[in-house]
# Entry
Amino acid sequence: MKPNKRLLKKIVKKIEKDRSCWDQRTWHCGTTHCFAGHVSLEVLPKYPEIKKSEWMSDEGLIQRKEERYVNELCRKDDKTAATIDKLADELNSDRTGNFKENTAIIAAYHLGLDGKTARSLFVPSNTLPRLRKKISKIIGEPV
# Structure
């Protein structure tokens, strides 16, 4: 897979613009998201038919949308399904609908990264300077 330079840079710029919307230690928590969470929200279809019920949290709504999207990707074609399965294996996921796993799969897929490279971006201890350095290395140019 080829790294998606545009999306990698876009997410870094979004985080830099408003650091209060980024917390690398949490996938989705209200209006705060990790790097993978920001990617997921950027590419996730809107699914207006999936409505938030009174018992569902914002995170639960995102989780339902992510689960549906991963399932749709797997039904798209054999090549996409194989890519998703490979990413799930590399990210140590079984695609059972685990919130963090679906977020990571979606982000890795759209960023054009293998599981090992994606994991290095998604670790909770990454700081913004560390993310910038890793992304610069991935895309071969400064971010």
Q: What stands out?
A: The radius of gyration is 15 Å. DSSP finds seven helices and two strands in the chain.
